[in-house]
Specification:
Blueprint: H1 5-17, H2 21-35, H3 61-69, H4 77-88, E1 111-119, E2 122-130, E3 139-145, H5 152-159, H6 161-168, E4 171-175, H7 200-215, E5 218-228, H8 230-241, E6 248-252, H9 263-272, E7 287-293, H10 302-308, E8 319-325, E9 328-336, E10 343-350, E11 357-358, E12 367-368, H11 374-384
Helix pairs in contact: 1-2, 1-4, 2-4
Length: 389
């Protein structure tokens, strides 16, 4: 009797627990090859690496041969060998180094504070940028979620969001995912225990917002969240699980809420962009800005379309504009709110951009100076309209 994908992944976990890692690797390869079909004819020809934070050359004959030998899952044996201990939470390889830990330079009077939030769902450290010149009255708050292998200081440097926060007079929080929660410091967007309201990382991050609001004058109608890659996927989770808390969400190079339910399905959807229909937004929830590069070989660009719902949820009022900024061309789709006065959706598809923050500071990791300034565009989108879609 042929085993299903779920049966094979269950067998793989049992083999890891008994330290039979070679057999576990083979079982994972079999599961991913059998349980994940290849993209349909005529779909995007995008093929790329299957783990966030890694890079793989596709220009050499050796790399092409590796892909051909990987089988229908597009997964190399070496990569599967790394996955086996991840399933059991016991890495047998050296974790990637964290990004730069020195914070960006702040103007006199500004503060980049260090805090630790502890709540019923767990604890996380976070940095909070408090501008030197805060306006009177309640202030907007932006939560920034870093990608895999990054940390708050590195993400702040690469996005230059603190400098923009100083201009706009807003608070910016940078929660930190520790290695103890994920070996690559990724937010666990693919784990069902971190995809639901009141549980896991969504509850912890909502608790950080509450903690900041209790210590500062925060405008409850102007709380936003944005993230890159795994952080972008977790931002989408927060928009789905706490829609009343966040007025708008920014997803850069990320995936939609519910796109995966375990490591295997996460790797598959990252590689292929074949998102389950239930994960595609239905036009409800916070306002949304999505940025994705068509050269992204880590998270397939089709995931950006799925987050935006741009592939199937267009309206007669959608406005599509092409342009260029920072040396790169882009296409931007804008969808108005039902009540007018602002956009419910902006979806930026950037030509040639890989898996990196568009228009960022090269001093930060996973950041590309070329292209539209994603930080400035996101902040504009967040602040231009206080209403919800």
């Amino acid at each position: 009797m042929t085993k299903t994908y779920s049966d094979l992944m269950r067998d793989a976990r049992a083999l890891v627990s008994s330290q039979q890692l070679g057999k576990a690797t083979s079982t994972i390869l079999e599961a991913l090859g059998q349980g994940r079909s290849a993209p349909a004819p005529g779909s995007s020809s995008h093929r790329g690496p299957t783990i966030e934070g890694t890079a793989e050359s596709t220009t050499t004959d050796a790399a092409k041969a590796t892909r051909r030998a990987a089988g229908p899952a597009g997964l190399t044996a070496a990569l599967a060998e790394k996955l086996a201990p991840i399933l059991a939470g016991r890495p047998r390889f050296t974790p990637p180094p964290a990004g730069r830990t020195e914070p960006p330079v702040a103007p006199e009077g500004a503060r980049f504070e260090s805090h630790v939030h502890a709540g019923p769902a767990g604890s996380r450290a976070y940095r909070l940028y408090v501008p030197a010149a805060l306006p009177d009255g309640p202030r907007p708050l932006l939560v920034m979620l870093h990608g895999c292998t990054q940390n708050p200081e590195d993400f702040a440097r690469g996005t230059r969001m603190n400098a923009l926060a100083e201009e706009a007079g807003i608070l910016v929080a940078y929660p930190e995912q520790p290695q103890g929660a994920n070996v690559q410091r990724c937010w666990n967007w693919f784990d069902p225990s971190h995809q639901r309201r009141g549980e896991g990382e969504p509850a912890i991050l909502a608790g950080i917002v509450s903690e900041i609001a209790s210590a500062h004058s925060v405008d409850a109608d102007r709380v936003f969240v944005a993230g890159l890659s795994a952080g972008g996927a977790m931002a989408a989770v927060l928009g789905a699980t706490y829609p009343e808390l966040f007025a708008a969400v920014g997803v850069h190079s990320g995936l939609p809420h519910g796109a995966a339910s375990d490591v295997g399905s996460a790797l598959s959807v990252m590689r292929s962009g074949r998102v389950p229909p239930a994960a595609v937004p239905a036009g409800r929830g916070p306002r949304l800005i999505v940025v994705h590069g068509d050269g992204d070989r880590t998270v397939h660009p089709a995931n950006g379309e799925a987050v935006a719902g741009a592939a199937s949820a267009g309206t007669a009022k959608d406005v599509v504009k092409s342009g260029s900024a920072g040396g790169r061309s882009y296409t931007r789709l804008t969808r108005p709110t039902g009540g007018g006065g602002g956009a419910a959706l902006e979806y930026w598809r950037i030509d040639g951009l890989g898996h990196a923050w568009s228009g960022g500071d090269a001093a930060g990791s996973h950041s590309d100076p070329a292209g539209p300034d994603a930080s400035r565009e996101m902040l504009r989108f967040f602040l231009e309209n206080h209403g919800r879609s």
